[in-house]
Amino acid sequence: MTDATATHCSEIYLDANATTPILPAAQAAMIRVLSDNFGNPGSSHGAGIRARIELDRARAAVAEVLHVPVAGLIFTSGATEGIQTAALSALHPQRGAAAVRVLYGATEHKAVPEALAHWGEILGLTVELLPIPVDQQGRHDLSWLAENAKGAALVCTMAANNETGAISDLAGIARVLDALPVRPLWLVDGVQALGKLAVDWLGLRIDYAPFSGHKLHAPKGIGLLYVRAGAPFTRLLAGGGQEGNARCGTENLPGIAALGAVCEALLAGQWQAGALVVAQQRLKTALQQAFPQLVINSPSQHCLATTINFSLLGIPSKCLARSV
Ligand SMILES: Cc1ncc(COP(=O)(O)O)c(C=O)c1O
Predict the structure, then answer these.
(1) Domain ranges of the chain
(2) What is the CA(2)–ligand 1 centre distance, in A?
(3) Burial letters for 33-44: b for 16+ Cβ neighbours within 10 Å, e otherwise?
(4) If residue 24 lies in a helix (H) or strand (E), which one and from where to where?
(5) 80 lines ligand 1 (CB under 6 A)
(6) How far is the CA of 223 from the centre of ligand 1 (A)?
(7) CB 248 within 8 A of CB 238
(8) CATH node for 46-267
(9) What is the pLDDT of residues 128-175, one digit of tens each?
(10) Given this model, what pLDDT does residue 97 score?
(11) Which residue of 19, 114, 162 sits with most ligand 1 atoms within 8 Å of its CB, as the best mutation to test the pocket?
């Protein structure tokens, strides 16, 4: 065994908010659509119909996990594409306005503010992009939001943070938005919530929610965008009419089937991220015992069971990651 192999074999992979290994059931679903059901879901012959059945099956499983109508789900290449589509959809109707106010959580993934600035520029809009401050626990400052959201066209707040695990108070944000004379559109980045948090996407009247397969044991290159019925929508990709003409281009059926298999596993109760809370506490305790100078940065409450953010005083995180 070479040194490189030994290192690989002894590795415990802990970077699941960056990406995850593929679930065996998702791999099996991919192989099924790469071999038996390889057809194009747009074709009307047997192979096409079998592929269409795979597509419908996956969409139904995702809709059941998210408790949203199948008609509101668009398969995309990942969350970044879903965010672009949502930003374009929310900003497009603003053409002609003198200026457009958009609020986004200060701790959003870079894809959100970058997409807002990009589409604002493409559409020739003057976008006033304001970061919503967060408190020590990483939660949005709801008083600031209440003071600044009046007249906003769009508010963007992630469901949970990929770096710290902080879970946003979406019900609190919804109350602030409901109290405004005109409710802005609301984009909630659901990437770190899928399979980990129960979010009432419909009840909270969330307009757009992007998700990413590779953060939950499906492969890279598959994602989803949930769009509330009645929310403004402008497609990013025009072409052959796929996804109800909302996102054209031949479907990534292996990725879609894999994401469907992950959702079927969730529905069958095969794993529940919430149950990891005990393991999370054990790991925190072990780390604290091993490193007396350890500082836990993740919030003590309202934190994903799958995330611990910590620092060791005096040791840069890059050095720490390299030495593990
Ligand atoms: C919270 C959050 N939003 C968006 C993204 C982008 O996702 P994708 O890789 O599917 O484009 C990520 C990925 O790191 C993320 O963690």
Answers:
(1) 46-267, 272-323
(2) 34
(3) beeebebbbeee
(4) helix 24-34
(5) yes
(6) 10
(7) yes
(8) 3.40.640.10
(9) 999 999 999 999 999 999 999 999 999 999 999 999 999 999 999 999
(10) 95
(11) 162
Ligand 1 center from residue 61 Cα (angstroms): 21
Confidence tier at 270 by pLDDT (50, 70, 90): confident
Cβ atoms of 261 and 227 closer than 8 Å: no
Percent of the chain whose pLDDT exceeds 90: 88
Q: Give the pLDDT of residue 3.
A: 41
Q: What are the structure tokens assigned to 140, written together? A: 């949005």
Residue ID of nearest Cα to ligand 1 atom 5: 79
H or E element: which one contains 120? helix 111-122
Measured from the Cα of 80, ligand 1's closest atom is: 11
Write the pLDDT tens digit of every residue in 303-317: 999 999 999 988 888
Please answer whether residues 232 and 243 qualify as being in contact, where contact means their C-beta atoms are separated by less than 8 angstroms: no
Q: What are phi and psi of 275, to 5 degrees?
A: -65, -15
Tokens 């991919």 belong to which residue?
30
Q: Report the chain's mean pLDDT, rounded to a whole number.
A: 94
- The CA–CA distances, whole Å, from 74 to 119, 122, 267, 274 equal 20, 23, 20, 27
Does any ligand 1 atom lie closer than 6 A to the CB of residue 252? Answer: no
Which of 136, 180, 140 has the alpha carbon at shortest distance from 156?
A: 140
pLDDT of residue 250: 98
pLDDT in tens, 243-268: 999 999 999 999 999 999 999 999 99
Instruction: Name, in order, each residue with C-beta under 8 angstroms of 17's C-beta and a sequence gap of 6 or more.
Output: 162, 163, 192, 215, 306, 307
Q: Is the CB of 191 under 6 A from ligand 1?
A: yes
